[in-house]
Every structure is written in structure tokens, then in C-alpha cells.
Design brief:
Layout: H1 5-15, E1 24-26, H2 28-34, E2 37-42, H3 52-60, H4 65-70, E3 72-75, H5 79-91, E4 96-100, H6 106-112, E5 118-121, H7 126-140, E6 143-145, H8 151-157, H9 159-167, E7 173-177, H10 182-194, E8 199-205, H11 210-217, H12 240-246, E9 252-256, H13 258-272, H14 278-281, H15 285-288, E10 298-303, H16 310-320
Parallel strand pairs: 2-10, 3-4, 3-6, 4-5, 7-8, 7-10, 8-9
Antiparallel strand pairs: 1-2
Helix pairs in contact: 3-5, 3-8, 8-10, 9-10, 10-12
Length: about 325
């Protein structure tokens, strides 16, 4: 199994009419704090509030007429569901059934309700929603769209990497949130092709270290029995496809505590007036805590999403204000 640059470039061209080239802004605060030159890739400003539309557009854009007629199904804690709903609407005429856990943030469910999709709330975890989506797909003939375990989806997420290297080609390190692995696999593939000396570092919650363990052991731990975490979009297993594509391209995976993620969310608001969910703000956590030494390096942190539940945002602001 391979993912090569021609496919990534072709995918980016195909999805470009439906996506934003998101801003890359410098963080004077994080730069002063760390001794590096720190930049923030604002995928929280992408349509639907996260990078997920890129992979969904890539996959749905490749459907055959027969597949489009039977429709699609997807399971997600929120952002992938929004991406699939957006892509189905943008590309037109694709029935979509979306399965989300009952614990999905209210902000994401409210946004999802704005699209012409059928929403099913199933269980309390992503894995329960995934099982429900798989059962529905098997019974109905719909195509299940994976959030991360699909080469076509990863080709779409890789467009984030293309944009970064156009905007900041001298980047020495990319810090990327890691859940199922689709985003980091795509970005690492681009980095290896365009800037082989650039380090790719993943960050995930201490409560769900599936990527760290999968890369260490060479086994895709998916599903993964994780602990509760504010970074719901990163909770769960690390996919077999990302493992095959990127196990030799990811330089390191570090873990972030719940407290450090909350501080990262607050710092982005306080210093940059940027709202990022824990799953996106986590990219800045190892810089904020100096967990990684980036002295003298040009570093890009990918803020992968900004769909924060209002109650969570209020709690974070209260904690640090």
C-alpha cells in the first residue's frame, strides 16, 4: 500500500473548489517562550471548523455512480461527521447516514443538523458508533467512509501539508494532533517528499496513547480502550492504513495531559483570540510546556479543529482567568 505525491497533488486540485487555504500565522508568544519560530496552521478556520472536509471530499469525489446511488455512512465523534455531511452536500446527490456517540459535543451535533443528512446517535463511544455504522452499511449497501483508515481520505488530509510547505517552506518541524492517524500520515508523506529533514511530531492525549503504542509495537491498536479525555476527536485507535503509510515517516509521538490541553486552549484564546478544541490546541501543548526543545527551529503547529462545546469553553476560561 502506497500514497505518492501525484495522487496527493491531483486530490488537492480536485477538492480545492470546496476548501479554504487556511492561514498560517506566527505566534510571538510561543516563539518567545520556546526560543523557536512558532507558526500556527489554522485548520480551525476551515469550513465546518476542521480539516476533516479534505479527506471526505477526496473519498466522496471518487465514488462511482452506483456507489453514489446507494449512499454513504460514517461514524464520528463530530468533525468527521461534519466533513462527510459537508462533502456530500457540496458534491451533490449522495444520501448520507451519520452515526455519532451520544457523548459527542453539542456544538458539533448542532452544526451537523444544518445538513441534509440522517443523524443516528449510537452508544457512548466512537467505537459503538462505528459498529452501528458498519452494521448499517452491511445491511443497506451504503459505503462506509472511514475517518482515517483509507488511502483516499489520507490523500485529502495531505493537502494540509502541501499548504504548509507553500506558506513556510523552511519549516524544521511539524507538530500534528494524532488520533486515528489520517492527518499525520498525509502530512508526513508530504514532508518526506518535499522536505526530508523536517521532523514530524505527533501529539495525543495521555488518556489515549494508541498511536504511540502502535508505532512502538508495529501493530495497529484499533479499537483502543482509552480513558476519558477532553480531546474526544483524538480518542480511540490508530489505523492500520496510517501505520503502513507513515510508521517510518513519523519521528516521534508525545503525550499531553488533560491540564496541559486546557492550558493550551486558554493560551490560544488569551494570546491570539483563537478558539481551538482540545483536539486541535493539543499541537501547541508540547511547545507551551517545553516538552520538546525547539530552540532555533521553525515549527508549525497544526490547529486541527475549533468546534468547542460552549460549556467546555466556559470551564476553561473560568479555570485560568
Amino acid at each position: 500500500m502506497q500514497l505518492r505525491m501525484p495522487k496527493i497533488l491531483q486530490t488537492e486540485q480536485a477538492i480545492r473548489p470546496f476548501t479554504h487555504t487556511t492561514p498560517l500565522i506566527r505566534s510571538p508568544y510561543l516563539s518567545r517562550l520556546s526560543g523557536g519560530d512558532v507558526w500556527l496552521k489554522l485548520e480551525n478556520h476551515q469550513a465546518t471548523g476542521s480539516f476533516k472536509i479534505r479527506g471526505a471530499l477526496s473519498k466522496i469525489g471518487r465514488l462511482t455512480p452506483a456507489q453514489r446511488e446507494k449512499g454513504i455512512a460514517a461514524a464520528s465523534a463530530g468533525n468527521h461527521a461534519l466533513g462527510v455531511a459537508y462533502a456530500a452536500d457540496a458534491l451533490g446527490g449522495v444520501p448520507a447516514d451519520i452515526f455519532v456517540p451520544a457523548t459527542a459535543p453539542r456544538a458539533k451535533i448542532d452544526k451537523l443538523s444544518a445538513y441534509a443528512v440522517t443523524i443516528h446517535q449510537s452508544g457512548d463511544t466512537y467505537e459503538a458508533a462505528h459498529q452501528a455504522a458498519s452494521a448499517f452499511a452491511a445491511e443497506s449497501g451504503a459505503l462506509e467512509i472511514s475517518a482515517y483508515d483509507d488511502v483516499d481520505v489520507i490523500a485529502g488530509q495531505a493537502s494540509v501539508g502541501l499548504e504548509i510547505f507553500r506558506q513556510r517552506p523552511q519549516a524544521d518541524m511539524l507538530i500534528v494532533p494524532v488520533g486515528g492517524g489520517g492527518l499525520i500520515a498525509g502530512i508526513a508523506t508530504v514532508a518526506a517528499a518535499l522536505s526530508p529533514t523536517c521532523r514530524v511530531v505527533g501529539v495525543q492525549p495521555e488518556a489515549s496513547p494508541a498511536a504511540l503504542l502502535s508505532l512502538r509495537d508495529g501493530v495497529a491498536y484499533d479499537p483502543f480502550d482509552h480513558q476519558p479525555t477532553l480531546a474526544d476527536g483524538l480518542a480511540g485507535g490508530f489505523g492500520a492504513v496510517p501505520l503502513v503509510l507513515a510508521r517510518d515517516l513519523i519521528d516521534e509521538v508525545v503525550l499531553s495531559s488533560e491540564a496541559d490541553m486546557r492550558r493550551a486552549m486558554f493560551t490560544l484564546i488569551d494570546q491570539h483570540q483563537l478558539i481551538a478544541e482540545a483536539s486541535g490546541a493539543i499541537a501547541t501543548a508540547p511547545v507551551l510546556t517545553r516538552q520538546i526543545d525547539i530552540t532555533g527551529l521553525t515549527v508549525v503547529c497544526v490547529l486541527s479543529g475549533g468546534n468547542v462545546d460552549t460549556a467546555v469553553l466556559r470551564a476553561v476560561l473560568s479555570e485560568f482567568s
